[in-house]
């Protein structure tokens, strides 16, 4: 069973800076975040609500969508089910590729990518917080902001 995340733990994060470290064969980027409280006491009773909050770092008005406990559980369940279905279909493609032999390279490769995608989708269900920066905002508002749980 999935655990719910209290609304008081949700915080708006602003990407304050990005550090770039170059190695011999790779480059690593590390984001530094400033966290600010959303000011929520509890989640809505049902559905989801969009609230407007001001970022403490840049002063921009950011709309945040917060789901109720029931909506959060339903979205987690949908992600988990979708990921499992994708894994089953991918395994079917890999089995089909084995039966086709040398002609089954395309279904086999598609099946392998499907396996990775299915596990990623199913795994994202565990980390879904039930809150997100609203998608109908400009990219300049969405990109430097993210929701964290502390």
Taking pLDDT < 50 over at least 5 consecutive residues as the criterion, the unreliable ranges are: none
Estimate the helix proportion, in percent.
25-40%
Distance between the termini: 20 Å
Q: How confident overall, as mean pLDDT?
A: 85
Order of helices and strands: EEEEHHEHE
DSSP summary, beta strand count: 6
Based on secondary structure, the structural category is alpha+beta
Strand order of the largest sheet: 2-1-6
Give the number of helices: 3
What spatial form do the alpha-carbon principal axes imply?
flat
Main pleated sheet: 3 strands, antiparallel
Number of self-contained structural domains: 1
Tell me what portion of residues adopts beta-strand conformation.
25-35%
Radius of gyration (Å): 20 Å
Structural write-up:
The strands form 2 sheets. A 3-stranded antiparallel sheet has the order 2-1-6, with no helix packed on it. Helix 1 packs antiparallel against helix 2. The two termini are 20 Å apart. A hairpin with a 4-residue loop joins strand 1 and strand 2. It has one domain. With 150 residues, the chain is an alpha+beta fold. The mean pLDDT is 85.
